[in-house]
């Protein structure tokens, strides 16, 4: 890079970091659902690349995310609960710089690459998929190893600034949007209107996030492509709680709840359904808790 070593490279890395370290999450997510493109091969290729960028094993996380949709915010079942109760605020805020995430992700990838699959992973990865998870982890770790070797051989940070480190310095937008999805809301209910949050966002954030700010809608209808979520929102909004009007407004609501949960872990935000909405069916909730995964 001609600007490397000068202040002119800063704007480049600010943009590159968000595109690598944040936009990768929404691309990983949508292609994992198989709804971003019409062809399976395109969804799979982008999913593999985005999984590498976001430092997730593409095999295990495909099954992990399926469990997340099946048992959203069901404690002990959902492997993707970001804010456990009582919430650890410092640890949660550390997500914005990605250091803890990257360290945890690399440890998991290293364990997978050496053939170790944790007991938790075995609860959602089919036995037949485990060899694929091991191979994928070995490919990821080999690329990271080659990048580190190049950085040491050239005695330059540039290779790591292009591969790997963007997951740290560019992940802030991914965390800013992702932590809003379920934070402070109900647990152990199966009605996504009560455990998931839709937030209106500015056009730039909405593009980076690929319309996942319509998160209630996505959880209710996960096979609707991201580009149709605004239309879906307009069609069913009378059946949903009022969305948060902005990112700051959603954070104010969430952090008030999280701070209260530090003193009272049983507290949560009770989303009110409008009079036009179909009521919450508690009998379905009881059935699901009795037989997780139904």
In short:
With 294 residues, the chain is mainly α. The protein has helices spanning 9-21, 23-33, 40-53, 58-70, 89-93, 99-113, 119-122, 130-154, 158-162, 166-169, 172-178, 192-195, 203-209, 215-220, 229-236, 247-263, 282-290. 57% of the residues lie in helices and 0% in strands.
Can you walk through the features of this model?
The protein is mostly helical and 294 residues long. The chain has one domain. Helix content is 57%, strand content 0%. It has helices spanning 9-21, 23-33, 40-53, 58-70, 89-93, 99-113, 119-122, 130-154, 158-162, 166-169, 172-178, 192-195, 203-209, 215-220, 229-236, 247-263, 282-290. Helix 2 (23-33) packs antiparallel against helix 3 (40-53) and helix 6 (99-113) crosses helix 8. It is globular. It starts with 8 loop residues before the first helix and ends with a helix.
Task: State the main characteristics.
294 residues, mainly alpha, 57% helix, disordered C terminus
Topology:
Layout: H1 9-21, H2 23-33, H3 40-53, H4 58-70, H5 89-93, H6 99-113, H7 119-122, H8 130-154, H9 158-162, H10 166-169, H11 172-178, H12 192-195, H13 203-209, H14 215-220, H15 229-236, H16 247-263, H17 282-290
Helix pairs in contact: 2-3, 6-8
| β-strand number | 0
Give helix % range: 55-70%
Structural class: mainly alpha
Q: Give the total of domains.
A: 1
Which segments are poorly predicted (pLDDT under 50) over 5 or more consecutive residues? 287-294
Radius of gyration of CA atoms, rounded to a whole number: 20 Å
Largest sheet: none
Shape: globular
GO molecular function: sphingolipid delta-4 desaturase activity
Transmembrane segments: 141-165
Domain Fatty acid desaturase: 6-243
Organism: Roseisalinus antarcticus
């Amino acid at each position: 890079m001609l600007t490397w070593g000068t202040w002119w490279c800063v704007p480049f890395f600010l943009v590159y970091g968000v595109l690598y370290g944040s936009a990768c999450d929404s691309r990983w997510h949508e292609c994992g659902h198989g709804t971003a493109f019409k062809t399976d091969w395109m969804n799979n290729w982008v999913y593999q690349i985005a999984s590498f960028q976001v430092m997730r094993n593409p095999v295990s996380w495909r099954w992990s995310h399926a469990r997340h949709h099946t048992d959203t915010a069901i404690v002990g079942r959902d492997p993707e609960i970001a804010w456990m109760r009582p919430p650890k605020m410092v640890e949660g805020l550390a997500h914005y710089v990605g250091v803890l995430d990257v360290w945890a992700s690399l440890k998991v990838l290293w364990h997978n690459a050496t053939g170790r699959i944790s007991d938790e992973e075995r609860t959602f990865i089919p036995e037949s998929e485990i060899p694929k998870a091991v191979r994928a982890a070995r490919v990821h770790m080999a690329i990271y190893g080659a990048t580190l070797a190049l950085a040491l051989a050239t005695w330059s940070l540039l290779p790591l600034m292009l591969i790997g480190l963007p997951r740290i310095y560019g992940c802030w937008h991914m965390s800013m949007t992702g932590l809003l999805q379920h934070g402070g809301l109900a647990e152990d209910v199966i009605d996504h209107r009560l455990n998931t949050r839709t937030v209106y966002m500015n056009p730039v954030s909405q593009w980076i996030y690929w319309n996942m700010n319509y998160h209630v809608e996505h959880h209710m209808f996960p096979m609707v492509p991201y580009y149709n979520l605004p239309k879906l929102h307009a069609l069913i909004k009378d059946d949903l709680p009022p969305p948060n009007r902005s990112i700051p407004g959603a954070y104010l609501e969430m952090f008030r709840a999280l701070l209260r949960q530090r003193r009272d872990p049983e507290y949560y935000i009770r989303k009110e359904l409008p009079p036009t909405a179909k009521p919450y069916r508690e009998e379905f909730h009881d059935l699901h808790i009795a037989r997780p995964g139904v």
